[in-house]
Design brief:
alpha+beta; eight-stranded antiparallel sheet; 5 helices; 10 strands
Length: about 180
Amino acid sequence: MKKAFFLLIATLSFAAFAESLPKGYGGVELGMNLESAKQALKSKSDFGYNGDRDVSLLPGDARVLIETDSRNTQRHGFLTQCWFQFYQENLYSIILNLNPERVDHYSVYTTLVKKYGEPNDFSPERSVWKNDSVTMSLERPLTIKYTDNKTLEDLSQKSLVQQNGWETTRQMFLDEL
């Protein structure tokens, strides 16, 4: 009985950690519309946002990318390059490259574990925390990614294309290895 109670408390504690995952950093959060995100980027100089010249249209329907670079303007900052991907005017992916001269992988990892619990998935290349709406990963050498799970799933479903005969045969060969 005591073991079952302890397991229940541990499970609830982990669930509380997983539910509290952030949706972004520095006032820029997943789900923001394009104009709100631009304003948030302007308000925090760490990102190195230079205005509309950092904004690109991507192939496909309603896809926008903001790419920032603070290596020249914020030499002593914690961020170097960042990417913000939008689909149908909403931010669904944030990628932050961190400055290895200012912070190290171990410090970031231990901070994330203290705040959000042990990762759901762990490998030498990356640590992943995930709940129903957000996936946050710390990847080597030193990148943090935030992804809106629903939008990514929708985009993945749209990109599913039937394999042609050659691709199917190739996959069958590879599966037999």
